[in-house]
Amino acid sequence: MFLPLRDDNPRARFPAATLLLIAANAVAFLFQLSLTARGQRLLTLEAGCIPYEIVNRVDLQPRNLLPVPGSIWTSMFLHGGWGHLIGNMWFLWVFGDNVEEAMGSIRYLVFYFLVGTVGALSQCYAMPDSTAPMIGASGAIAGVLGGYLMLYPRARIATLVMIPFLWPVVQVPAWIFLGGWFLAQFALPSNSGVAWMAHVGGFIAGLGAVRLLAHNRHNPPSPPVEYIPPARRSW
Q1: Domain range holding 27?
Q2: What are 131-178's pLDDT values in tens digits?
Q3: Would 146 disulfide with which of 166, 174, 207, 233, CB 3.0-4.6 Å?
Q4: pLDDT band at residue 226, thresholds of 50, 70 and 90?
Q5: How many independent structural domains does the chain possess?
């Protein structure tokens, strides 16, 4: 297992939208924890994204918090436990700030919900008969990873390798780290409980959407070249 610790891609602007998303997810999770076990199950059914509802455009009981397909967006702010929340938010923090800087905060938020929607729809149409609710921001964050890959493929990612007693930290190019993460989704078993098609769909959406929403990045100007006239020949 590999864990990204940081990248070597410094930012020039405060990542307001990324921190806002992290805070919103944290507040939503704390609200979940404040409920009873029955209340948490009910919230998951009301705010989770149920593939059968989305594909067939129906609202099963209990009624959703938002009309179909609104559960796609409410589901992005619910998580199944501390590990689920912290893992998602850590990846969003490591990679999201630079993607936000390339787009601006408003475009970045549009991008986030767009790729998250595509990710959720990918999972829904892969399992159209499922009535199990999906929760988590993973599809949207997968889109952020795809956007980062397109923008900064050569950035170096300080990566912790989970080898007991050694715990080495290695520098990995972003295209290798994120490409490996994407391929690893196909190795997840179908009964793993992970909505891996949401990861795949969100990641691919991020590869394309970043081209539409990121500001044009101009190459830095070349340094001036001093013209030195040739020496005069002496006769």
Answers
A1: 2-213
A2: 999 999 999 999 999 999 999 999 999 999 988 888 899 999 999 999
A3: 207
A4: very low
A5: 1
What gap in Å lies between CA 195 and CA 46, rounded to an integer?
Answer: 18
Angle between helices 82-103 and 138-151 (to 10 degrees): 40
Do residues 215 and 104 touch, judged by C-beta distance below 8 A? yes
**Residue 219 included in any domain:** no
Residue 228 lies in a domain: no
CATH number at residue 88: 1.20.1540.10
- The predicted-structure confidence for 96-126, as pLDDT tens digits, reads as follows 999 999 999 999 999 999 999 999 999 999 9
Q: Are 199 and 139 in contact (CB under 8 A)?
A: yes
